[in-house]
Structure formats: structure tokens, C-alpha cells
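User: quick one, fold this
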Amino acid sequence: MTSQGAVINAQPSAFARARMRLARRTRRHVHADVMLRIILVRHGRPAISGGERTCHHGFSDYIDAYEAAGLDPDSAPPEELQDLVKELTAVYTSNKPRSQDSARVLLPNAELIADPLFEEAPLASPRIPLLRLKAPVWAVMSRILWHAGYHPEIENYRRAKQRAKKAADILTARAREEGTTALVAHGYFNAIIGRELARRGFRKTGSHRVRFWNAVTYELP
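Assistant:
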């Protein structure tokens, strides 16, 4: 696996490859004197239920199941998001099924470039005995504790920010070539990437929300 990711979908035909090359050359010419655009998209709803109350052991199992889950077949991207990315011939994803499945649904004819660099900032189940909560509540508590320094055997916030800088480098380089690029990945890590892009002078349209298919656009004149 390289820092640029691995193309994971089937090899396109010679005609399709030629069309992609022509489209890229055209976009490079058209976008030479205009802004760069990076679109950060959160994946759709995973095929997993989190409605029942559980203990911290159960939440630990839920984290594993969530990471392994693909896209819920009934979760479809909104039309405005499809319109926003419809001209793209390639899209970045993480290595997680819910990220890749979402990208395939959103851009079925695009080249998927998967890279573990774009995976979500991790969570660890806090060991709080007797407490039973729904998975989303556990997740919020775990994220707060993660920022406070609870990261047993997982990536901490400082390392996540370093990873986000590398992710921003890749996306910015691609945007310089294509004019526009997109990442279909994970909500919280997308927000960390977004803060890095803002630090570099990109202007944000939209907000990072805990909502499936949420999209935020960053533009640099």
C-alpha cells in the first residue's frame, strides 16, 4: 500500500481509460486559473443496528461490528450530493466497507482509490461497570474521553492530526491536477482534515455534522 492508495475497482476498458485521460487533461486546462475544490463526504448509513442499551463490553463488540459493516442497502445519497460530484472520474475512500460501498453508490463509474490513511479516528470502549447506554451515547462519551487522553492501544489525537496533514497533502495535490477531488470516508476524521485545510487557507461551505452522506466543500482561490 502506497501513500497514494490503491485502485480497487475493476480495470476499465481501453476506451474508458482514454476517456478518463481526456477528461483529466480538459479539467486541468479549464481549472488552471480557478479555485481548487475538495469535497469531504461522510459515508452512508452502515448495515448495523445500535438502538439497544449495552454495557461497555457490548460497546466494544459494537465498535468491531461497525468497522466491519458495509452500507445499508436502503441508504442512498441525496440528489444534491450526486449533482455535486457527478463530473468526477475518481474518488478517494478509506479501506472500510462502509466507505467503499458508499463511494460505489455515489459514483458507480468512477475509479476508487482506497487508502487506510483516510480511516476514522479510532474509539476505545471506556471501562465503566454497570452503566448501560445506547451505542451512539457510548460513542460520544468515548470521543470526549479520547480527547481527554483515553486512548488505550489506539491512535491518539496528536497522531490523528498528523495523519490528517498527510491526507490533506494527497487531496490538495489531486485537486491541483483535476480542479476538484472528493473523499468518501468518515465523519470525525473528515472534520480533522477540514481543520487542516482551513489552516491552509481553504474556505469552507457546509458544516461537519453527525449525519450520513454529510458533505462539506473546501475551496482555495
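User: anything notable?
Assistant: Strands lie at 6-7, 36-42, 53-54, 90-93, 111-114, 133-134, 180-185, 203-205, 215-220.
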